[in-house]
């Protein structure tokens, strides 16, 4: 009987132990599935922003790479550029690896601000690629202290896209606009507007892209060579550029736009006669197939009063960076094998997407020499490639956009009639106090 | 196998107890765990719904603060003269336009700064055809398309109201807050405002609270899922959920159980009045419970405990019923007529009592039987004694008449001899019936009887005696042989008037064999099986002693092995054989 009692007691203890165990299970159930973020380090994650351009290009690179490395996993994620900037800043500042990609695309203008602010967060690609293989002007923004961090991607080389039919109505040919200065450009614009009633070009008053094109063509920038000191007051090229900008506005040939869709809308609908911008617009222009043969590309105009200005410049352009997070070796190898050296890939990107790469070897390929029917048989790509080599090298420094915001205000004041020198001096002071 | 089957068909006490205990143990285990599980489930659901309704309130708060940010931005935009100018004024020259555009954009940028954290794309359309969009990735189609979209139509139907819409079809679904921009006084519409949020940024308000089996859905007024942590549900319609959400909102229910896409779910819901959306929280019961209840372990542990309990039970019940079973086995081995098989008394109190009772009963039974046997014997003896005492008066009369004749004839000696024979015959027969006598005495009796008969009826029938000498001292019951001699005298010689009767007595192993053989008529045994006649005649010595009685008497005294057997042949005679045990009285006391 005693034995039985003991046994009974024992089984009760067991039972209660069991029940308390189940309670534990219930309590901990809430926090079980949080630890999934650790994806396998074999997967290379890439962030880019333009599904029609750089994302497409990256997908081509992925295909090319997977041909030789069938088990490689590359995950291309699309984010708006602003989102990428924000996420990078958050991630890099907080110092956590989680949530950051292996490879990220950064616009050249912003590259230095990241490289200088977080030098340890980027993986040194010096040993993976050769900087000398790429267009010289790309090296400045993508390197820091002699170390090559970025793999230069697309060239932002600019050209002047013109409507040959409108020019013809105004009595000009595209040749009349080859290697001219901006004053001549305005003059032709006026004639075109007078004859056709169409505006000459579009401008977004808050985006000083055209000013940047002008000053880089003159080998100057918002910042001095050191990349940190604002270079507004007393910058002859800038002054010349702003004066030209005002002249352009006053010519009343500018269609004002506020965003990208209005920009492409205007040029596709035939509202404007010219587009002075980066070669990346080619795809958008070609999107309107009915205008085939009506376009030509000529070299970018240069500043008239600036002595060393050339008929080549740059707008935009970006490069790939490997972040210093787990999986960086695989990511670096992937980039080096594709964007860093694969000539065939560049040919394909050029053919399918219209990417003009900055890998020098690629410009010798077949695709670059092809005549383009859309541009009336012009070997447009080759021309761009040629101009790419002429782009003056400048240091975009860390604060391009910060200064541009200041300068945009200054420009508005100048357009309203303020004195340019004092406006610039004021902007200089403001910039100096802001970008320390 | 069959015995096993039989055991089931006729369940033993042990079997019954065991089966009942097994069933009840399992039943108790199952019921207890079922009740416990049900209770903990209920408790879990209650706490879960409490925490989740808190979570929903939190989600609601973040939705509200987003709504507030949108409201503020909308207010700022509608109050901004610069923006209004941009949307109403006609085109002027490039410079003027540039100023208007720049001013508007500047304003917008400032206003949007407050929305930066949410990732909102803003589009304004003006009556003058101008438009502004801060991020083309939200709406990559043309502005005229937007102007003619159902979204705009819907907005214009309710001017002045800030409403939220679901916009699918793009690369990612959008949630769009729309509002018309109107002149404060004349209520004239001068523009439309669209604030677009990607569905996946919309998720940030609740994504932290979701997990597998714990889903959040945002339903609009048509029951369409505008946002959910489950991608595949976004953009689908669910009137079921909408109905439940509306009902819950009306009845102020905390939570509700329902079946959704084949699963049992608990649904919590809250109405977002500012959006006209419903926040719906679906908790998959199975997943939530499954995580809480490790069913397999519970079953395993339950089975363990039950089997251990059953094992203990088995041992204890076996022990308890062991003595009883032993008792039963021994009882069943008490064979027929074998009442001496007493049981060992041990085990539990009840078993001991039972054993004692059984033994006591055996005692009583044995007593009773021996008593019965004794009574039977006594009754036979009494019968015999009574019979012996009934000496046929005719026999006496005839004998005395014969003596009288002898006396008259003058053969005095023969008469005296006859009287002597009668006297000794009577002396021997009237004495105690139960006595055994020696063969010698019996022989003397027989001779007396034969002598009397021969005096009366002549000596046509001769009697010869063949008695082996060693038998003289053997004992045998009285009046065993006499009836057969008598029988031979009066029945065997009906046809013949001459013949012999032989009396043979000999020892055969441990038996005494006495034979009465006559050379008379004989009989057909087949026709008359009952050759041992029970006839009564005046000539007989005793009227009551039947020949059949002799056989029964012998068997009663000595057992089945002994008795009388008769063989006979018509015309040749009859042979009666009496088998008796060999008994010798060592203390040769001749009692009367």
From TrEMBL, chain A:
Keywords: Signal. Residues 1-22 form the signal peptide. Coiled coil: none annotated. It holds the Pfam family SBP_bac_8. PROSITE patterns: PROKAR_LIPOPROTEIN (PS51257). InterPro entries: Bact_solute-bd_prot1, SBP. This is Extracellular solute-binding protein. It comes from Paenibacillus zeisoli.
Automatic annotation (TrEMBL), chain B:
It holds the Pfam family HAMP. It is found in: Cell membrane. Residues 318-370 form the HAMP domain. One of its GO terms (molecular function) is ATP binding. PROSITE patterns: HAMP (PS50885). Keywords: ATP-binding, Cell membrane, Kinase, Membrane, Nucleotide-binding, Phosphoprotein, Transferase, Transmembrane, Transmembrane helix, Two-component regulatory system. This is Sensor histidine kinase.
């Amino acid at each position: 009987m005693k034995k039985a009692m003991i046994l009974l007691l024992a089984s009760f203890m067991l039972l209660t132990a069991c029940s308390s165990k189940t309670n534990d299970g219930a309590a901990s159930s809430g926090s079980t599935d949080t630890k999934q973020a650790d994806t396998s380090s074999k997967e290379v994650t890439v962030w880019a922003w333009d599904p029609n351009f750089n994302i497409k290009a990256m997908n081509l690179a992925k295909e090319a790479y997977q041909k030789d490395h069938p088990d490689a996993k590359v995950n291309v994620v699309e984010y708006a550029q602003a989102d990428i900037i924000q996420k990078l800043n958050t991630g890099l500042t907080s110092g956590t690896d989680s949530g950051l990609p292996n490879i990220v695309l950064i616009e050249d203008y912003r590259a230095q601000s990241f490289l200088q602010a977080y030098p340890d967060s980027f993986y040194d690609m010096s040993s993976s690629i050769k900087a000398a293989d790429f267009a010289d002007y790309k090296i400045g923004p993508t390197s820091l202290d002699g170390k090559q961090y970025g793999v230069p991607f697309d060239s932002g080389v600019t050209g002047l896209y013109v409507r040959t039919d409108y020019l013809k109505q105004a009595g000009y040919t595209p040749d009349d606009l080859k290697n001219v200065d901006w004053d001549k450009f305005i003059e032709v614009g006026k004639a075109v507007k007078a004859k056709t009633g169409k505006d000459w070009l579009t401008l977004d008053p808050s985006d000083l892209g055209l000013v940047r094109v002008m000053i880089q063509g003159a080998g100057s920038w918002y910042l001095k060579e050191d990349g940190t000191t604002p270079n507004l007051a007393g910058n002859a090229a800038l002054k010349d550029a702003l004066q030209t900008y005002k002249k352009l506005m006053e010519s009343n040939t500018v269609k004002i736009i506020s965003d990208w869709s209005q920009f492409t809308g205007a040029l596709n609908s035939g509202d404007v006669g010219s587009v002075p911008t980066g070669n990346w617009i080619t795809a958008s222009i070609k999107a309107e197939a009915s205008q085939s043969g009506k376009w030509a590309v000529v070299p970018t105009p240069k500043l008239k009063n600036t002595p060393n200005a050339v008929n080549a410049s740059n707008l935009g352009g970006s490069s790939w960076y490997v972040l210093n997070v787990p999986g960086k070796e695989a990511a670096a190898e992937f980039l080096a094998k594709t964007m860093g050296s694969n000539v065939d890939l560049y040919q394909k990107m050029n053919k399918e997407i219209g990417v003009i790469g900055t890998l020098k070897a690629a410009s010798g390929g077949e695709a670059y020499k092809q005549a383009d029917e859309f541009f009336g048989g012009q070997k447009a790509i080759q021309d761009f490639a040629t101009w790419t080599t002429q782009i003056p090298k400048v240091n975009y420094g860390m604060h391009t956009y910060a200064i541009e915001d200041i300068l945009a205000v200054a420009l508005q004041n100048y357009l309203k009639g303020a004195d340019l020198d004092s406006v610039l001096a004021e902007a200089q002071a403001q910039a100096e106090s802001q970008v320390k | 196998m069959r015995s096993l089957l039989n055991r089931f068909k006729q369940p033993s006490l042990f079997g019954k107890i065991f089966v009942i205990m097994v069933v009840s143990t399992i039943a108790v285990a199952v019921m207890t765990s079922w009740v416990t599980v049900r209770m903990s489930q209920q408790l879990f659901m209650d706490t879960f719904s409490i925490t989740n309704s808190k979570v929903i309130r939190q989600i609601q708060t973040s939705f509200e603060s987003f709504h507030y940010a949108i409201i503020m931005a909308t207010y700022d935009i509608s109050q901004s003269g610069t923006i209004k100018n941009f949307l109403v004024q006609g085109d002027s020259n490039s410079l003027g336009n540039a100023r208007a555009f720049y001013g508007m954009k500047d304003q917008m940028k400032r206003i949007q700064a407050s929305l930066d954290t949410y990732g909102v794309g803003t589009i304004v359309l003006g009556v003058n055809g101008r438009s502004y969009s801060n991020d083309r990735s939200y709406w990559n189609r043309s502005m005229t398309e937007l102007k003619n979209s159902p979204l705009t139509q819907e907005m214009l139907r309710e001017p002045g109201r800030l409403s939220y819409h679901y916009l699918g079809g793009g690369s990612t679904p959008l949630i769009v807050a729309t509002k018309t921009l109107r002149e404060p006084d004349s209520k004239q519409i001068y523009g439309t405002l669209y604030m677009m949020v990607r569905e996946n940024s919309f998720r940030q308000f609740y994504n932290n609270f979701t997990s597998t089996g714990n889903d959040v859905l945002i339903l609009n007024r048509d029951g369409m899922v505008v946002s959910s942590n489950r991608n595949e549900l976004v953009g689908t319609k669910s009137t079921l959920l909408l109905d439940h959400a509306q009902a819950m909102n009306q009845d102020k229910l905390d939570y509700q159980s329902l079946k959704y896409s084949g699963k049992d779910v608990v649904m919590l819901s809250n109405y977002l009045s500012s959006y006209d959306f419903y926040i719906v929280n679906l908790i998959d019961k199975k997943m939530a419970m499954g995580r809480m209840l490790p069913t397999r372990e519970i079953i395993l542990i339950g089975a363990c405990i039950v089997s251990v309990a059953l094992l203990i039970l088995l041992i204890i019940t076996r022990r308890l019923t062991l003595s009883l079973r032993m008792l039963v086995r021994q009882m069943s081995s008490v064979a027929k007529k074998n009442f001496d098989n007493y049981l060992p008394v041990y085990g539990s109190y009840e078993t001991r009592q039972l054993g004692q009772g059984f033994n006591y009963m055996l005692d009583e039974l044995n007593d009773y039987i021996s008593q019965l046997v004794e009574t039977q014997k006594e009754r036979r003896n009494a019968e015999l004694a009574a019979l012996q005492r009934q000496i046929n008066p005719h026999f006496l009369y005839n004998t005395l008449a014969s003596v009288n004749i002898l006396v008259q004839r003058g053969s005095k000696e023969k008469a005296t001899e006859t009287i002597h024979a009668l006297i000794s015959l009577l002396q021997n027969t009237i004495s105690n019936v139960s006595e055994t006598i020696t063969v010698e005495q019996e022989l003397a009796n027989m001779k007396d009887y034969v002598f009397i008969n021969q005096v009366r009826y002549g000596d046509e029938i001769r009697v010869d005696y063949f008695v082996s000498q060693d038998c003289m001292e053997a004992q045998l019951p009285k009046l065993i042989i006499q009836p057969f001699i008598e029988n031979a005298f009066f029945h065997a010689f009906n046809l013949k008037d001459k013949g012999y009767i032989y009396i043979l007595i000999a020892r055969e192993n441990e038996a005494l064999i006495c034979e009465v053989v006559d050379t008379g008529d004989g009989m057909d045994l087949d026709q008359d099986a009952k050759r041992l006649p029970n006839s009564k005649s005046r000539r007989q010595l005793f009227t009551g002693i039947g020949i059949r009685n002799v056989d029964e008497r012998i068997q009663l005294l000595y057992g089945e092995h002994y008795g009388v057997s008769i063989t006979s042949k018509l015309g040749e005679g009859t042979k009666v054989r009496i088998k008796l045990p060999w008994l010798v009285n060592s203390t040769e006391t001749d009692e009367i």
